[in-house]
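Now read these lines:
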Amino acid sequence: MSIRFTAIAAVLLLGAAACAPRQDYRGITIEEEKVNLVKVGESSEAQVNALLGSPSTISTFPDWGTVYYYISSQTDTVAFLAPELIDQQVLAIAFDKDSRVKEIKRYGLKDGKQIAFVDRETPTRGKELTFLEQLFGNLGRFNSTGAK
């Protein structure tokens, strides 16, 4: 009786562990100490790039200058369910026409909409087969002449 109880308990524990959420981190998390080294009106675009690294994305508006966006997110995924966004941080550093830091802003999850990351999937050429075409596609393709 004790062995059965132990086996059932082990199966239940393994099942519960399989349903534990998996955490996924994406993007660039910038340390606060490094952000504090960036000075408005003093730091150049090249200095920011050297200090913080390449941004997640760059927005360029000719009249306003360039804006670097450093984006990071944290998601939890449970089993086969869709990932749930837990946290998202955006650091925006705007530059003026002289490539000097104009302003630094931080945005969180509450400040905007979820940013969708690009999966970088390339579609392949070919025909999408229906279930029935896949099921009956090979009928008649085989002959018995090669079996002799």
User: Anything to note?
Assistant: Residues 89 and 142 are 58 Å apart (CA to CA). Helices lie at 2-18, 32-36, 45-52, 131-136. DSSP finds four helices and five strands in the chain.
